[in-house]
Each structure stands twice: as C-alpha cells, then as structure tokens.
Design a protein that fits this description.
6 helices; mainly alpha
C-alpha cells in the first residue's frame, strides 16, 4: 500500500486550519522544509515525524494510511479497520480544534482585562 506523507501532512495542516507558516512554527521546522514535504520534494525524517506527534498528537504514518493510502489493495478484512481509523482521526482533529478554540477564547478574555 503506497503512503503519501506529503499529502497527509498538507491535509492535516488544512484540517487544523493552519497556514503553512503557522504549522511550520508549531512543528519547529522551517516553512520551506514543510512546503517541500507537502509538495513531495523531500521526505520527513523520523525526527520530523515525531514533531507531528509532539505538536498535535498525530502519527503521520497512521494518518496517511487512513486518508491517503491506496486502500483498494488492502485485504478486505482491513478496510473496515482503516475506515474506523479515519473516523478516529477526524474525532481527534475535531477535539484539537475545539481545544484551540477554547484556548483562543481564554486568551481573548485575558487580554481584554
């Protein structure tokens, strides 16, 4: 099964509603490096993969399998599990977005006082 980590990184960033620069800053990588990863011009190192987990609690490989793997070649018995994995990632990202929104609301309240 082919896994496209660049497309997965771009989709994850998009789902988190982050610009390329914002995501690079949160990950602690350069904007150019993240752009190259997303465009398939470079592959993320194991250390960079770990940064996705540290920043957002996302295993980029598993995210890629769920959303960008060629699941047509996966055994039928695994296809339901891959769909469940995708659903779980959607829930995780929704929870991250809700947490960010609460943090933004708190920071607005704190700065207003």
């Amino acid at each position: 099964m082919a896994i496209d980590l660049g497309r997965a990184a771009q989709e994850l960033r998009s789902r988190l509603k982050l610009s390329l620069r914002e995501a690079a800053q949160e990950l602690g990588v350069s904007y150019v490096h993240l752009c190259n990863i997303e465009n398939g011009k470079s592959s993320p190192s194991p250390e960079t993969i770990e940064k996705f987990h540290d920043a957002w609690g996302v295993d980029l490989y598993m995210f890629a399998i769920a959303f960008h793997g060629d699941n047509r070649h996966a055994p039928k018995a695994l296809r339901g599990s891959i769909k469940a994995l995708a659903d779980a990632w959607k829930d995780h990202i929704d929870a991250l977005l809700a947490k960010r929104a609460k943090e933004d609301d708190r920071s607005c309240l704190t700065s207003a006082t």
